[in-house]
Amino acid sequence: MSSTPSQFKIIAIDGGAAVGKSSTSKVLAERLDLMHVDTGAHYRTLTAALLADGVQPNDPELDRRLETLDLNTQLAGRSARLSINGVVPEDAAIRSPEVNASVSKFAAIPLIRQALFEYQRDQAEVARQAGFAGLIMEGRDIGSVIFPDAAYRFFLEADEATRAARRAKEGQTDSIADRDKMDTNRKNAPLICPDGAIRVDTGPRTLEEVIEHIIQLIHDQ
Ligand code: C5P
Questions:
Q1: Would residue 3 count as lying in a domain?
Q2: Which of 130, 142, 147, 204 has the lowest CB atom count within 10 Å?
Q3: Cα 63 to ligand 1 centroid, rounded to whole Å
């Protein structure tokens, strides 16, 4: 794997809960030789660490608590994971009902978003250094705030029934609609389809169809 800076691709994938961002991003990372970053996992990891420390979203000492957390990256194949004080938590620990219920409350707090902003932007350099041809980053504010100049920005959508069925299949307890409402209505970096991003409806398409559609859109740009 090697790339020159001019070839380096940044792909932003945004959308609400359970629209298919992770499955799509992982396959695209494989096909296009990209490093994959799931920023939802960042907010979940931070939430799990704070909850484990007894910190609630309204904690007046949140800034002091955040200062004790050392954020770093561990690469597992194409996937770049956030470690906090040297530890990458298990997937089950960041997808628990407790984290599902609190993550959007923490994510609405400017201090929390500030703590992740530089870290997330720096992932482009991590991907370059590791020799990937580019970076695919998924979340809610990637095309609007983190990489507004990314060459490729997609906004994934799906109908409620499809999304609920996807979560049920994963065996997760998750109030998708509540999280989307909080994420859309917050003041800081709300969930929106950024100007100029391409909307992709994943509801009526299989994963393979979504991948082919996006690869075609990338080739056409
Ligand atoms: O993507 P996932 O559903 O795992 O994200 C969990 C939560 O993290 C979201 O509901 C949202 O509150 C927050 N998030 C965010 N900005 C991002 C990614 C996730 O606020 N870029």
A1: no
A2: 204
A3: 20
